Structure formats: C-alpha cells, structure tokens
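BUG-595 | component: ligand-complex export | severity: low

The export step for 2-acetamido-2-deoxy-beta-D-glucopyranose jobs runs without errors, but we want the raw record kept on the ticket for reference. Input record follows.
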Amino acid sequence: MWRALLLCVFVLLSKVSKLNSHQRKPQKHYCASIIVISFVSVSSAHFFRVVIPLVIPPSLAITVWSILKKDFMVEVGKWPMFTLLSPEEVKSIRQACVFGSLANEVVYITESGEVFAFGVNCSNCLGTGDGQSTVAPKKIEALCGKKIVSLSYGSGPHVLLATKDGEIYAWGHNGYSQLGNGTAGQGLIPFLVSSMVYDKKAVEVACGSHHSMMLTPEGEVYAWGYNNCGQVGSGSTANQPTPRRVANSLQSKKALAIACGQTSSMAVADNGEVYGWGYNGSGQLGIGNNGNQLTPCRLAGLQGVCVQQIVCGYAHTLALTDEGLLYAWGANNYGQLGTGNKTNQPVPAVVEIAACHSSYTSAAKTQNGQVYMWGQCRGQSITLPHLTHFTCTDDVFACFASPAVMWRLLTVEQDDHLTVAQSLQREFNSSETSDLKFCVEGKYIHVHKAVLKIRCEHFRTMFQSYWSEDEKEVIEINQFTYPVYHSFLEYLYTDSVNLPPEDAIGLLDLATSYCENRLKKLCQQIIKRGIAEENAFSLLSAAVRYDAMDLEEFCFKFCVNHLTAVTNTDAFWQMDGNLLKEFISKASKCGAFRN
Ligand SMILES: *[C@@H]1O[C@H](CO)[C@@H](O)[C@H](O)[C@H]1NC(C)=O
Ligand SMILES: *[C@@H]1O[C@H](CO)[C@@H](O)[C@H](O)[C@H]1NC(C)=O
Ligand SMILES: *[C@@H]1O[C@H](CO)[C@@H](O)[C@H](O)[C@H]1NC(C)=O
Ligand SMILES: *[C@@H]1O[C@H](CO)[C@@H](O)[C@H](O)[C@H]1NC(C)=O
Ligand SMILES: *[C@@H]1O[C@H](CO)[C@@H](O)[C@H](O)[C@H]1NC(C)=O
C-alpha cells in the first residue's frame, strides 16, 4: 500500500522534472500545482512531507532564486553570552558556537584566526587548559591560526572540530571515550584525534550526546564514543574508545553528509540515499523494521528521492531533497515534524534545514529567503511550520530553542557595506564630494547643499533660487563660533552632538534661531550633564537668554542647592543686574535664604 502511495507522490512530482538525478539544482521552474500527499505510511515507519504553508507565485520563485545566492548577514548579537564582550571583540568574530545544557559556553574564532572560549567550565569543555569558568574570553592556544571548517558538540559537553587541513581536535567530557583518544579521562586541552585515525582527514564532524562522528574527503564515515544503542554503528553496544570506520552497508558508499541525534546517527550517500543507525525508540531512523540498529540501515521509504541535506534534532530527523522538498520523521511530541494536513497547495522549495541534537526545534529556509520554525519554540509546541521575520535559521535557535545553542558553527560574513547613515557620516567635511564651503573664524567646513536642504529647513529656505547664497561656493559665518557651527553641521550628517557644555550653550542659541527642536533638546541634555558649581550661573544666564525654560528651571535648582558655592564664583558677580534680581527674588520665594 505504501508503495502505491509513494508512487502516486512521485508520479505527480515527476511532472515537474525527472527524479533520480542527484546533480540537479533546485528547480527554477518550481511548479505551483503539485499535489502533495503529506504523509506516507511505510509499514511501521512514518515519513512526513513537511508542507511549508506559503503560497508564492511561480514567477516570483524564479526571481528569488538569485536573491538567495546573496548570503544574509548573520550576527552573534542575538545570543546573550556575547553581551559579555566589547563591541570591538564582537566585531572581530568570524565564526562562533554557543553550546552547553544552558547555552552558557562559547567558542569563537576571530578575524585574525585566534580561537577563544568563555563561559561555564562544565566538564572542562572550554579547552583552555586550566579547568576554570570564565566571563572573560581565554585563548585556546593550540587552535590559533588553524582554519576551522566544522565544529560540533555533545551534551557532556565535548567539543569536536575539523580544520581546513583536515585535522580533528576534541576536548571536554570523555566519560564514554567520545574524544576518541582511547581513554576516558577528561580532555582539558584540544586533543589531536587525527593520530588515532591513521591520519585520515576530516571535512565534517558531528556529535550526538556522547558519541562522535567524522566524514573524510573520500566519503568514509568514522564513529566513536558512547554506543549503548548502536550509534557508533559497530555492530555491538560496547563503547568505542577510538575512531572506527562505519562499514557494513555503508562500506561501498561514498557519504556526503553526516548528522547525529542524541543517540542516533545518519549519513547521506552521494546517490541521495539515507542511512541510519543507533537508537530508534521514536522512529527517528525512519526504517521499517523494529529495534535499534547496530549497523547502518538504508531508509527504504525514501526510495526515489535524492536527499542532499540531513539534520537531527533530539529524536527527530529532517531531510532535504535536491528539489527542495522536506521530509521529516521521528519524535513529534512538540510538533517538530511540522506535519500539517494541507493538501493541494503550492509549496515553496526549501533550501536549508536546521535542527540540533539538544533541542526539539525545527527550522527551514525557503528559496525566497523566508525562515520557518516549528516544534518546541520557547515552551510552545508549534505543529505547523510558522513563518518568522528572521533571515537565517540560526536566529530561530538563538531566540526560540531551549537551550538557545547554535545548531551549527556560525559564520559571520564580513560586511563592508555602509548604511545610508554611515555613508552620510563619512562624507561630512569631504572636500572631494562637497559643493559648498562654510568659512567660520577663517576655517573651512565642506558640505553638500542637497544634504543641508534635506536635513534642515533653514537651509532649504536659504538655497531657494532667489537667495544669493545659492550661487555662492563659500559662505562666511560670523554669528557663531567655529566649534558651534562645526558641530551643528556635523549634527546634520550624524544625528549626534559632541561638545563641552560651555559650547553647547552657543549651539543651543543656534538651534533656537534655526528652530531645530531636537538639537535644542540634545544641547540641553549636554548642559545638564555638564553643570558644576563654577559654570552654573553662566549656564543659567544662557538658559534665560535662549528661552530654554526646562533648562532654566534645572540650572536654577542647581544654583539654589549649591547657593554658597555658586555665589562665590566670578560668573555670579558678572551676572546681568535684572537677571540677578530675578534670581534672588525667585530663590527667596522658594526659601533659599530662610536660615
Ligand atoms: C571545571 O570542571 C571540571 C569538570 O566538571 C571540575 O572537575 C573542575 O573542578 C572545574 N573547575 C572549576 C574551577 O570549577
Ligand atoms: C587521552 O587523554 C587523556 C586526558 O587528556 C590523557 O591523559 C591521555 O594521555 C590521552 N591518551 C592518548 C593516547 O593521547
Ligand atoms: C524503530 O522505528 C520504527 C518506526 O520507524 C518503530 O516502529 C519501531 O518500533 C522502532 N524500534 C524501536 C526499538 O522502538
Ligand atoms: C490529518 O488528516 C487526516 C485525514 O483527514 C486525519 O485523519 C488526521 O487526524 C489529521 N491529522 C491532524 C494532525 O489533524
Ligand atoms: C575639514 O577639511 C579640511 C580640508 O579637507 C581640513 O583642513 C579640516 O581640518 C577639516 N576639518 C575637520 C574638523 O575635520
């Protein structure tokens, strides 16, 4: 019966294009009229075709494929641990991984290739050698300068990584020999596993809770560590102290990708076949027969589909085909399979799937860059793929997975793109692009008429054609000092003011006469922050002069509170007669001279 159903799905699918080829790229002409049968029963195994509930017009699907090629900017800022770092340190990060049962451990790699770790020292998983927890990043000397291409972690946690040269390093929890060095003592510093694998190189690594896997460039899979359910694929349930080639039905296959659930393992062969072994209590192996599998077993239910990516959650598995179709199987206690009952609807092709062995969360990104999540999301069980506003699946894990760990080694794209605001900021006082100069106290400031007109009503009026200023290339300013006029123009380009309080009074004057209300407020803030006994009276006088009532009130209170000290300053004695009288009268009214 299942064969008939599958056949039915595939006949329908093959209207779009012929199957069985593994080189096909996601189809441009993605068809909007596929009839999807969303679940197929394979005797005791259940495969679900996850239907992303979204309608996109086929024409759009064509255009968006090109957008996809542009990588979306990924940031580490969404993971709380990074708030411990300075903005400069965050900016230097090129790759990062947050892990641990409470997402309290971090490894990151900087622009210059230095490797750091910080967080809780659970099982010595920081690899720093001293076994200490730390809030300040510590360098992992042994790894600095090595280009890291793949990194994974277990629940112990233990950390496993592969370098560009194919070296494999491991450290942290080793209670089940998951470091692969033949012993079960904890690894304080990175241990070079390569020597235990006859110097085989690795292109990808994956960790389950306490077992480890690596994939070689030749497509061989090696596994070691905890083996209580056969997750090492050795045919027994004895823990595996050193890396061992996963053979049997995988022996003659070239593997393309590997993934680990908590206690299960998956591999995708280059012909699109999927193999699973280890624990099968929730059907996560997707095989028809009963029992945990001690050796790799091909997923017959996926016959005829060409899988290209595979990821495992705690006890569920997601597989993505070369046509952008998403299959899910295994545990569904939080809805992590995303099984909707929608039939007969257009579906967008999926291009990336995401899951992590320590969570029940699933995520996928579609061809047009939309990111969906389902499963356990911050305590809620979301049973249908839910469209988010994220641009990458990593953000789903940062914000909705528990623990909020990374599902993969995060790569931060170096971005030299400037925003409009940054570009504008850079062009302030640029003689290269400017079309106007101001001359203040004999010094020149280069600006752009268009910018001034856009940013300030005063200039918009000034540059209307009937003003003579419009023809000029240099405008002389005599009414304001250089620091004041300079920071005014700079404010128009940057939105911010950087002036000492004494000069801010001059700028307040300017802002008042140009009717720049926001600038007025900024100046008042600067003055309030900079008030002191020595300048309190001159600031008060200025506030009165520039009609800044709020500021006047503030300065007045300050003067009353510090009456003895401020009356001993020069500014007090230089105060204008009327202003002084007014001050004394107001101060006496509020009881300043009572004793
Ligand atoms: C670091 O973790 C290890 C293993 O959990 C423990 O033995 C050690 O005492 C810890 N060190 C500190 C300073 O907490
Ligand atoms: C394996 O790691 C342990 C703990 O770091 C260490 O004591 C032992 O010497 C290592 N074994 C080998 C063969 O390197
Ligand atoms: C293995 O998974 C299948 C479903 O795919 C399930 O019927 C079977 O009971 C599982 N085996 C065990 C030991 O739970
Ligand atoms: C899906 O639809 C089938 C048939 O209409 C129904 O038996 C099943 O209960 C539905 N499942 C869910 C989760 O709604
Ligand atoms: C503005 O540019 C001129 C010439 O390019 C330069 O001499 C001057 O120092 C600059 N002023 C500021 C504040 O950067």
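Assignee comment: Attached the raw record above. The domain at 420-590 is CATH 3.30.710.10 (Potassium Channel Kv1.1; Chain A).
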